[in-house]
Amino acid sequence: MLTRQRKELLLRILKEEGQIVAKTLSESLGLSEDTIRRDLRELAKEGLLERVHGGALPASPAQGNFAIREKLSTDAKPAIARAAAAMIRPGQVVFIDGGTTAVQLARALPRDLRATVITHSPSVAVELVEHPDVDVIIIGGRLFKHSIVAMGAAAVEAVGQFRADLFFMGVCSLHPEAGITTGDFDEAAMKRALSAHAQRTVVLASPEKLGTASPFQIAPLETVDHIVVNREVDEALLAPYRAMGIEVTLA
């Protein structure tokens, strides 16, 4: 089998089965495990899959820049945002992450809401200018232009000054085995800090992020209390999260 044919086969198997286990696949195809692993490494460099220990998972399409991500799931994100906004109670202190779904969440907040929003996203902060009873606290740091958020040591340190009732987290990827992951090492650390200083973590997951993986783990799924997804998502994709005791809201 030619290299190109092997790679096409690997991508087809990944699409159909949702994962590749190198050892199992090498046995079923009669190929060496080293050959499979080499092909997976090369496909990962092309951004066509995400390498994990022992095999591969689908790569998240949500690793593009902010402008590209705004064009993904344009119907699902506002619905997810509305469902998330309904979770906020008057008087609460809330962390809102950066990202396109987080901006939609800020837009969905009622104009008469009385709450405190803490964010490292300038985009989210600007959306709340016309909310007279929302006190907005902006966390500063180095601007990560990919997601338009503040990051770095100063930002992570600032998070430690707060205790929030809820953290609405945006992610690149969500997978039962890989956990919650993103495409940048420092961004993962920032999200981890926000989650650690919130009583509950709510993951906002548009459909293209489910069942995929990105290079840097934010945290295992045990740290997630709630996931908000589009109601049209296949229940089979959600079953593993429900089995872990994670609440799932269909928006």
Automatic annotation (TrEMBL):
InterPro entries in UniProt: Carb_Metab_HTH_regulators, DeoR-like_C, DeoR_HTH, NagB/RpiA_transferase-like, Tscrpt_reg_HTH_DeoR_CS, WH-like_DNA-bd_sf, WH_DNA-bd_sf
Highest taxon, organism lineage: Bacteria
HTH deoR-type domain mapped to chain residues: 3-58
Pfam families in the cross-refs: DeoRC, HTH_DeoR
Gene3D superfamilies linked to this entry: 3.40.50.1360, Winged helix-like DNA-binding domain superfamily/Winged helix DNA-binding domain
Keywords: DNA-binding, Repressor, Transcription, Transcription regulation
Listed GO MF terms: DNA binding; DNA-binding transcription factor activity
Protein name: DeoR/GlpR transcriptional regulator
Source species: Pseudoduganella lutea
Taxonomic placement: Bacteria, Pseudomonadati, Pseudomonadota, Betaproteobacteria, Burkholderiales
